[in-house]
Amino acid sequence: MTLGKKLYSILFLTLFCAVIDMPKTVPLKLHYGFINIDTKLTRPEFSITFLGKTFSRDLEIKQGLDLKGGTQVLLSADMQNIDVADQADAIESSKEIISRRIDLYGVSEATVQSSVSDGEYRIIVELPGVSNIDQALDLIGQTAQLDFRELLPDKKATTQAMLSDFVQTELTGKNLKRSRVEFDPNNGQPTVTLEFDETGAKLFEEITARNVGYRVGIFLDQMPLMTPPNVSETIRDGKAIISGGFTTEEAKQISIQLNAGALPVPINIVKQQNIGATLGQESVQKSVRAGFIGLSMVMLFMILYYGWRGVIADVALIIYGLITLAIYKLLPVTLTLPGLAGFILSVGMAVDSNILIFERMKEEVRQGVGWQRAMELGFGRAWDAIKDANVATLITAFILFNPLNWNFLNSSGMIRGFALTLALGIIVSLFTGIVVTRTLLRAFYRPPKEIKQ
Amino acid sequence: MINFMKLKYLYFAISLAFIVPGIISLGLYGFKSSIDFTGGSLLEIELKQTKPTPAEITQTLETQAELVSVTPAEGQRFVLKFKPLDRQQALTIKEVLTKKYGEVTEIRFETVGPTIGRELLRKTLTAIVIAAIAILIFVMKQFNQFKYGVCAVLAMFHDTIILLGAFSLLGHFYGVEVDTLFVTAVLTILSFSVHDTIVVYDRIRESLKTNHKAGFTDIVNKAVNETLARSINNSMTIIFMLLALWLLGGESIRWFVFALLIGTITGTYSSTFVAAPLLILWEDLKNRK
Predict the structure, then answer these.
(1) Which positions 39-78 of A are in contact with B (Cβ < 8 Å)?
(2) Of B228, B140, B155, B138, whose CA–CA distance to B192 is shortest?
(3) Tell me: the pLDDT tens digits for B141-151?
(4) DSSP of B92-123, one letter per residue?
(5) Where are the domains of chain B?
(6) Residue of B251, B119, B259, B92 whose CA lies nearest to B183
(7) What is the pLDDT of residue A263?
(8) DSSP per-residue codes, A113-170
(9) Is residue A395 within 8 Å of residue A318, measured between CB atoms?
């Protein structure tokens, strides 16, 4: 690539990032003599469709719980009474049910994840921006309630029964031994099978005897799990088959949820964090202000110490900031307080490559090499040190981020946030510190007379 | 060129002067750990109408829960610490306080089970050990010699121990707590320390290639002279950022930033005055045999 092309590429990249970085709308007002501008700049929507896959982002910075305020709850499932073979299933269904409960409560952007650590099954629930979560927490703590319901005697014949027309029977999830997905040997359709314990089998027999030809509802947490199936005959052996009307995937889902109702995993809260929105906002404001002041000091220092080269390093630093912010918005990176600190720290490291190169250039010039050659030598010779040093930092960031979810390492969101911003910072700074600075120096830097040979 | 390496024993003495008190403090007092490690509950509240003393609050809550400490924070805020509470107990405590002192705003509530804390501690130590081994292997591979890896890791532990010791002392005398953020800081300092050391070692590696006649000590000394300006300048930029964050960045990250600040300073010092002289010491010991 020629110098000109490189310069334009950098300019284009910078503008592209700047557009992504800008707030949704920027008011633009200018009154000067007869020039009157009063308009709004609006950031374009970001949505790309490539090979049938759509990639779209709302381009807002995602703030973590510690910044936005909200609640994080870490739950641990007590697997004492559950077969090892069923544990993974049980945790998956618990997760499923907790998500559904939170959805019912209407918390937006809630996340529910499950994890296994040292043979302990955990569920992490994050509820951002919610101040009064006590009710939601109560819901989370309960174990799933599965029960079987029949229609009120006078509503049995209707085809459009309401939810309230179903009444509870004595048969509940605790009588269900297990549920499985099986395939009908005649037509290969997926079916969901239920197997009850002794009491359950007896109760189920009574219910089915009462309702032959009518529907029986299966309710999970007061909501019907699926379209209530029709009872075709009295079932005596405690084994029921629900068939028809669902895909294999749906059948699996239903079976998981039935098992959850049947396998009530006691769930305990092991860790809980509520962060008020004000505390988070205070931290953001203060950190951002501190970041700006720190950054200005760094830039001033570079100019005072390295003159015009410092100015160029500062321009590269601003480009660095724009690119990093754009990446945060595009990935997206959820910014937490340690993440913010990681970003600010990486600014310091971003300048480092420039300092290394400039010091190297000075040395070469001192040894009598012409400035242009000194510039190229400076970049070449500093590269080894920059590369090795940054790889070492990347190694630590990798271990902190724990991308393979190794059990023996941490996977807490806070430490991950820090590792991610640090690693991104290093990678972007390698690009701006080397490619951008070199291009800008080649294009714009002319040394002062006294250095020129 | 300044003959820095002549005084290598002085540098080791300075390092020891910082390391020894820290180690003693670690042995005697350990850390003051936050609920992140010990388990427990933390409730930060703001009282709108009155400002009671911590002792008064303790008295009010005496019968309610196992209160560990009450610390006044900025303004009308208080940080209350308990043995682990559930949400219901926390709500009761808020009610009791509201009755007594008027409007209570909950700033944050955290509760950590005791097993989680131990797990975090163990995982952190594992991370440090793995990072140290990975860096040892990486440096050995890049520099083709065992001693570079070992000395870089020793310098790294030097910085870590000073940092840990400093926080043990701060914990004992000023009640500064060690939490998850501090763990992050320690791990960052590991990488920063090596980052800085590698820059110095890179110079030694380069000089060894071109300078066949000079002695090892001279080469190390030359490398230190050549990289000192860069080392200081680079640290200055990071220190500027950290100072700004420390002074203006709010309560929640203050000690985190302070930990990074200590680490940056020792990291800069150790790459020049520990990692480099250690190489010479290594060579000396080898030659003596």
Answers:
(1) 66, 74, 76
(2) B155
(3) 988 888 999 99
(4) HHHHHHHHHHS-EEEEEEEEE-HHHHHHHHHH
(5) 4-35+116-288, 40-112
(6) B259
(7) 44
(8) EEEEETTEEEEEEEEET-S--HHHHHHHHSPP-EEEEEE-GGGTT-SS--GGGEEEEE
(9) no
* A344 contacts on B by Cβ (under 8 Å): 241, 245
Residue A221 one-letter amino acid: D
Q: How far apart are CA A178 and CA A173, in angstroms?
A: 10
Chain A positions in Cβ-Cβ contact with residue B198 (cut-off 8 Å): 385, 388-389, 392
Task: Considering only residues B86 and A369, tell me which one the structure prediction assigns the higher pLDDT.
Answer: A369
**Residue corresponding to tokens 């009155």:** B50
For B40-112, CATH number out of 3.30.450.40, 3.15.10.40, 1.10.357.10, 3.30.70.100 equals 3.30.70.100
**Chain A residues with CB inside 8 Å of B107's CB?**
276, 278-279
Rounded average pLDDT over B169-177: 90
**In this complex, which of B107, B180, B188 lies closest to A414 when CB atoms are compared?**
B180
Cα A51 to Cα A48, A54, A57, distances in angstroms? 10, 8, 17
By the 8 A CB rule, do A148 and A228 touch? no
Question: CATH 3.30.1360.200 occupies which residues in chain A?
Answer: 70-275
> In terms of CA atoms, which chain A residue is nearest residue B113?
A270
The closest alpha carbon to A121, from A265, A253, A274, belongs to: A265
Task: Give the strands of the sheet with A190-196, arranged side by side.
Answer: A176-183, A190-196, A239-243
Q: Please tell me if residue A212 touches chain B, with a CB cutoff of 8 Å.
A: no
pLDDT at A130: 62
| Rounded Cα distance, A151 and A167, in Å | 6
Q: What is the dihedral of CA B8, B9, B12, B17, to 10 degrees?
A: -140
Min CA distance, A379 vs chain B (Å)?
A: 14
Q: Is A118's CB within 8 Å of B184's CB?
A: no
Class of domain B4-35+116-288: mainly alpha
Cα–Cα distance measured from residue A374 to residue A366, given in angstroms and rounded to the nearest whole number: 9
What pLDDT, on the 0 to 100 scale, is given for residue A452? 45
- CA–CA gap between residue A393 and residue A388 (Å, rounded): 9
One CATH from 3.80.10.10, 3.40.980.10, 3.30.43.10, 1.20.1640.10 for A3-21+277-444: 1.20.1640.10
Residues of A in contact with B91 (CB under 8 A): 134
**Do the domains B40-112 and B4-35+116-288 match in fold?**
no
Angle between helix axes B216-248 and A277-306 (nearest 10 degrees) is 140
Instruction: For residue B248, give the chain A residue with the closest CA.
Output: A290
Widest distance between CA atoms in chain A: 105
CATH architecture of A70-275: 2-Layer Sandwich (3.30)
Per DSSP, the residues of B74-99 read STTEEEEEES---HHHHHHHHHHHHH
Where are the CATH 1.20.1640.10 domain residues in chain A?
3-21+277-444
Q: What is the mean pLDDT of each run of 10 residues along chain A (453 residues)?
A: 86 89 77 75 72 71 78 81 74 74 65 75 78 61 69 71 77 77 84 86 88 82 76 84 79 71 64 74 80 88 90 91 89 79 75 85 85 85 85 85 73 76 88 88 75 46
- Whether residue B41 has pLDDT greater than 60: yes
- The reported pTM is 0.75
| Residues of chain B positioned with their CB less than 8 A from the CB of A278 | 107
Question: Which helix (H) or strand (E) element contains residue A27?
Answer: strand A25-32
| ipTM over the 0.85 cut-off | no
What local confidence, expressed as pLDDT, does residue A453 receive? 44
Residue type, A44: P
Q: Provide the 10 A C-beta neighbour count for residue A105.
A: 17
Length of chain A: 453
Instruction: Report DSSP state, residue A175.
Output: G
**CA–CA separation, A379 and A347 (whole Å):** 20
Give me the helices (H) in A178-333, please: 198-210, 248-262, 277-306, 308-330
